[in-house]
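User: quick one - fold this with phenylalanine bound?
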Amino acid sequence: MRHPSTAAIRLADYRPADFVIDSVELDFSLNPTKTKVVARLALRRNPAGEAGAPLVLDGDDLTLIGVRLDGRALGPQDYAATPDKLTLAAVPDAPFVLEIETQVDPSANTQLSGLYRSGSAYCTQCEAEGFRRITYFLDRPDVLSVYTTRIEAEKSDAPILLSNGNPVESGDIDGGTRHYAIWRDPFPKPSYLFALVGGDLGVVRDAFKTMSGRLVDLAIYVEHGKEPRAGYAMDALKRSMRWDEEKFGREYDLDVFNIVAVSDFNMGAMENKGLNIFNDKYVLASPETATDGDYAGIEGVIAHEYFHNWTGNRITCRDWFQLCLKEGLTVFRDQEFSADMRSRAVERISDVRGLRLAQFPEDAGPLAHPVRPDVYQEINNFYTATVYEKGAEIIRALRTLIGEDDFRRGMDLYFERFDGAAATVEDFLSCFAEASGRDLSHFALWYSQAGTPLVTTSEEYDAAAKTFTLTLRQETPPTPGQSEKRPVVIPIALALFSENGQKLDLASEDASARELARGLIELDRPERVIRFRDIPSRPVASLLRGFSAPVRLEPAPASEDLERLLAHDDDPFNRWQAAQSLALRAIFARVNGDGAASDARGLTDALRLLLAKAEGDPAFAAQALSLPSEIDLAREKGSDVDPDVLFAARQSLRAEIGRALGEALETIHARFADPGAYAPDAASAGRRALRNVALDLIAAGDADKGRALAQAQFETAGNMTDRLAALATLAHLGGAAREDAFARFYAQYAGDALVIDKWFSLQATIPEEATTRRVQELMTHPEFSMSNPNRVRALISAFANANLTRFHALDGSGYDLLTRVVLELDPKNPQLSARLLSSLRSWRTLEARRRELVETRLKHILAAENLSADLRDIATRALG
Ligand code: PHE
Ligand code: ZN
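Assistant: Sure. Structure tokens for the protein plus phenylalanine:
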């Protein structure tokens, strides 16, 4: 168990390690409860470290068996060992070899960090600080070593033995009942990238020929019998490898690339060098068991982990404060990959949706932190939407600012200059400064200043002078620990349209030629006023096109302008944004009880037009028809949030759209039925998405009609996407049809954990009073388990994050449920309990009664004994 420490870790305190570890030889004897680990470390003093310093190695919950220095066994007088630390006060100044033997119990490791078991397999998770749960080490990302790993096990227990790098040797021992394998990874790496797998697994194999003609053996290891479900992941892997060569000139560097899917995993997947370990949710798919969303998720995560080979592994992070250096950049790369594989516009829309759903609330609440934090208590709590998603947005904004060519040159420079190094954000930015010839020191503020900037605009048209004056102002609200904010560099892509939808030339004395030519205003100060000339009539401004920076923009244009943008804008993101803004306006008109009916007519008319042209881009139409979520509404409201009121207003608009567009929606639903065999490609997925959004709106407008259509679709669906969408619609309609469908769904997929997760989630998100009880009962279901993160997320995170009216119930029952689960989970898996508690990140925006309920629970949690450092950190900051 990690002991709660109160010492904050600060970026300002960084200093190089006192020792270098040139090579690591690891020797594992796998055993379910007593795994023996021998680590031979070739150490020497770091010239950049402190002369004469003692050797202090990190540990966590370790049992030390013995220590040898240059072959000589050390006695207790030579070192000080605790489960968390191994200190050698006096070590030679000349290079030396330290041999450490530890014993670990993988079966008792329920936190899924270090060496643990998933089913009958052995696997590891070492990021961020899991390696120290295997052996004593300088467990920090700037200590890079070459690893050789020998694994020995009972052949029956673990016929497959894998580690990083290339296979070197394998063979039988003990007359063939035991065996061993030796792996060597020639690329120096930090300990967090170490991995080992042992187990009885099925495998799918393929090969990839790299751009220089080398053949790489690819393998995906899965539970026996699941091999047919790994085909899409393999295909996505090969496409990722090709794409990174074509788009970034990056070639794979080992002889093998292995992926292992395990069912117990805290996160999505892990980029260990040459041996990616995955949550099986991001590997396994078949048309019968996976939705289009699952396929897209697999493609994105396979790509993400593969891309880490260069952005993360070949170039790693100097310290954990630089986490965004690998994560933000790799998310940016996987988003670009998905955009190239699918529809760029739809990818952009769904990435921004994701950002606004998770990162904006985080940035506006008590857990807000800079993309590069400067202090942490527990690094595990910084694998956040801010580091990942805002980190990716900053890189996108940088590319927008300096242009594609300079961006690509900067990336090339980065790969060239920092290959093999542990780098910082400054190192990264220096490459783009050099490539573009620009001073990026102001831009760098994006990394250290938290909070979402608010850009407010005002417009004025002077018909006599034919000028259009645009005023842009920025302000970033205070965040914890940062009360004063400075202006950041915000690239604002813009276009002006005439009344009939013509794009106007941009001419102004208030913007540079470069800005005007590119349609990109650089808002790098509190305010800019730009007067455009030769504007023949009042124009419609399309601002922040493509969501050119991670900011909030206010106010939304007038409704007639939004309708025009929805009809004419050639930026698909802003067309979608126009539909969202119209919907938001209609929903808040209901919340405030003003002019509801007339407000929605413009929207329904615009959507009707869109539906008529939906054939051209069904995926886009589906996105435009998807109303802002309850979380979007809460964020827009900003304070005094009553989830019940927002829910009711949203439902009422859905019903109105359903009624107004009933026939058009039915036509779409009928016409877009899957013609034949399921294909996971984006075009087919887009058709299904549109059809299923239509079904849901039909049901909102006419429950009986919706129920009949959904039941028929549930019966006849040839794939999980359509079947689950039908079940979701039935779930919201209620009644016997719902219970019947849930029962039949369960009967059909019982035992198929990833499918049963969908069944858990849908039940947890029914917006009815009985749901809290239902979730409690499901927690006793034989297929539910508190030890499996996917199960906990499917049931409990779904309830807390996607069922706002029930989670925020005024009797406190939703909060009580979360509190109980979090406290029960914490001793087992602190990373998971802490993440679960983060569902309360926006609690301060609630209205007073709910705020009080939450505050009591947070204090109750903090008062509990033996809280993990992870959970204590989140609860403390949440209370702030
Ligand atoms: N580095 C992983 C990724 O983003 C995420 C991860 C972090 C996995 C910590 C496990 C533990 O690709
Ligand atoms: Zn990552």
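One thing worth noting: The chain has a mean pLDDT of 97.
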